[in-house]
Design a protein that fits this description.
By secondary structure, the chain is of the alpha/beta class. The chain contains 15 helices and 19 strands. Strand 13 and strand 14 form a beta hairpin. The chain starts with a strand and ends with a helix. 53% of the residues are buried. Bound molecules: ligand BES, manganese (II) ion and zinc ion. Manganese (II) ion binds next to loops.
Length: 498
């Protein structure tokens, strides 16, 4: 039985029964609809709040079971913080938080989207609904038995009462497209590497065609013709064929240069001949998190019919040790013509991206290129899992990404690129080597990428700390959080449509 979450919008005047949710700010003042609902119970809300220490703080909840005289099974009061101060992200998180608070037994709930300030606008109601959607996701397709202690029955119906349910439904449609894209990315990251090998990944990206995306898949033969010696070397030791998938969405003006999104898709990273230690290696199934985000983003853009031209490019490979694997000491010729001395076969992501970036710039002459890659452990040493590392040759693009990050909660932190760091990857035998020294590992990796972007405005997001092994939050409980889809969708929506 697949999980289902049904979200419906209805007028504020609709009947409320069973499990009801109301919203209050830190003044504990409910809106008129909730006030009328609570009237038979006198000052129940204030007494319960005092007894529980509930102060209406943003994202806090007060749970009243079988409230007397209300004919309800349960009343959940959701805190919205200081009146008038809730941000869009606060509203999304409130929806997510609520999903976490719903008791397993209740399949149905009705939420009155109104505070003492009045009814939420259609857009605000849709923000809340987005939170419900994001939090609901779980990846359990390989569990043949369900444990009792797992969050939620996987069948919920949530009715949102709003002032203008038609407008709210419409506002939700675009957010639903984005939530679908996030879930696509999450599924890809969570899938095991025996299932999601390069060809299977490419096949799944092919499903975007149903949304009107033009999808092309290049195999090893085609890539060899293009001279992609860097990308191909990484997959050389794998029994699976490497793949390059190009996804084009043309929702903008005819002939207008596209935005390019590029993802590292290492379906499994053993390190290759420079083999990784065994402990934790299973996590390297998530080394395609950048590519997953690109597919999720293309899904979101196409599903909400974004008025933009965008192209997604992902390089899908498996980094395996084998008799035919590439070696430390090998010198590769990339599509750009630049040669690369291999120091460590575990620094493979930058090799994949080197050819992707060059190809993207050459073929599409994009307005900008943004690549996402689970590129270095070093970025986690620097930033933990709170921010993705941002490297860019373009201040305006970096600023825009920073802003989109704060708005969506998918935060980025800018790191430096300089000639001094660039020198660290000069090689005695080739144009460059694929690792710097022990220091500044995330930066030298970014410097390496920059050698393949020329003057195209470009940003590199090192998502090793954010795209997999995700920190559990109000908006995500899953190992693969789909990080980056909402960030980039927001960037597109706010700056590149119409
Ligand atoms: N995929 C890894 C980076 C990574 C590590 C992602 C942990 C997520 C979690 C990448 O291919 C890698 O192995 N990088 C090396 C580079 C080094 C050999 C210069 C690293 O970070 O150790
Ligand atoms: Mn590696
Ligand atoms: Zn890797």
């Amino acid at each position: 039985m697949p999980d289902t979450l049904k979200i419906t919008f209805a007028p504020l005047s609709s009947p409320v029964s069973g499990l009801a949710v109301i919203l209050v700010g830190s003044d504990l003042r409910p809106g008129p609809t909730a006030s009328a609902l609570l009237a038979p119970a006198g000052d129940l809300l204030n007494r319960a709040a005092a007894a529980d220490g509930f102060k209406g703080k943003a994202g806090s909840f007060l749970d009243i079971v079988a409230p007397d005289k209300l004919g309800l099974d349960r009343l959940i009061v959701a805190g919205c913080g200081k009146p008038g101060e809730a941000s869009e992200l606060d509203r999304v998180k409130l929806g997510g938080g609520l999903i976490g608070r719903l008791p397993d037994a209740a399949g149905e709930a009705t939420v009155v989207l109104e505070t003492g300030e009045g009814a939420l606008s259609a857009e605000e109601a849709a923000d809340f609904a987005l939170g419900l959607r994001l939090r609901f996701y779980a990846f359990d397709r390989y569990k043949t038995k369900r444990k009792d202690n797992e969050e939620g029955p996987r069948k919920r119906q949530i009715t949102l009462l709003t002032a203008d349910e038609k407008a709210a439904r419409k506002a939700f449609r675009a957010r639903e497209a984005v939530a679908d894209g996030v879930d696509v990315a999450r599924d890809l990251v969570n899938e095991p590497p025996n299932v999601l090998h390069p060809q299977e990944f490419a096949r799944r990206a092919g499903a975007l065609a149903d949304l009107g995306v033009e999808v092309e898949v290049l195999g090893e033969k085609e890539m060899k013709k293009l001279g992609m010696g860097a990308l191909l070397a990484v997959g050389q030791g794998s029994a699976r064929d490497s793949q390059l998938v190009v996804m084009q969405w043309e929702g903008g003006k005819d002939g207008e240069a596209p935005l390019a999104f590029i993802g590292k898709g290492v379906c499994f990273d053993t390190g290759g001949i420079s083999l990784k230690p065994g402990e934790g290696m299973q996590d390297m199934k998530g080394d395609m998190g950048g590519a997953a985000a690109v597919v999720g983003l293309m899904h979101a853009l196409a599903a909400r019919k974004a008025k933009v031209n965008a192209v997604g490019l992902i390089g899908l490979v498996e980094n395996m040790p084998d008799g035919s694997a590439y070696r430390p000491g090998d010198i590769l010729t990339s599509m750009s013509g630049q040669t690369i001395e291999i120091i460590n076969t575990d620094a493979e992501g930058r090799l994949v991206l080197a050819d992707l970036l060059w190809y993207a710039k050459d073929r599409f002459k994009p307005k900008f290129m943004i690549n996402l890659a689970t590129l270095t452990g070093a970025i986690m040493v620097a930033l933990g899992q709170e921010h993705a590392g941002l490297f860019s040759n373009d201040d305006a693009l970096a600023t825009a990404l920073g802003r989109a990050g704060l708005e969506t909660g998918e935060k980025v932190w800018r790191m430096p690129l300089t000639a001094e760091y660039d020198k660290l990857i000069d090689s005695q035998f080739a144009d460059m080597k694929n690792t710097g020294g022990r220091q500044a590992g995330a930066i030298t990796a970014a410097q390496f990428l920059q050698r393949f972007v020329d003057t195209t405005p470009w940003a590199h997001l090192d998502v090793a700390g954010t795209a997999m092994n995700s920190v559990k939050s109000d908006l995500n409980r899953s190992w693969g959080g789909g990080w980056g889809v909402r960030l980039l969708d927001r960037l597109v929506r706010d700056r590149h449509e119409g």
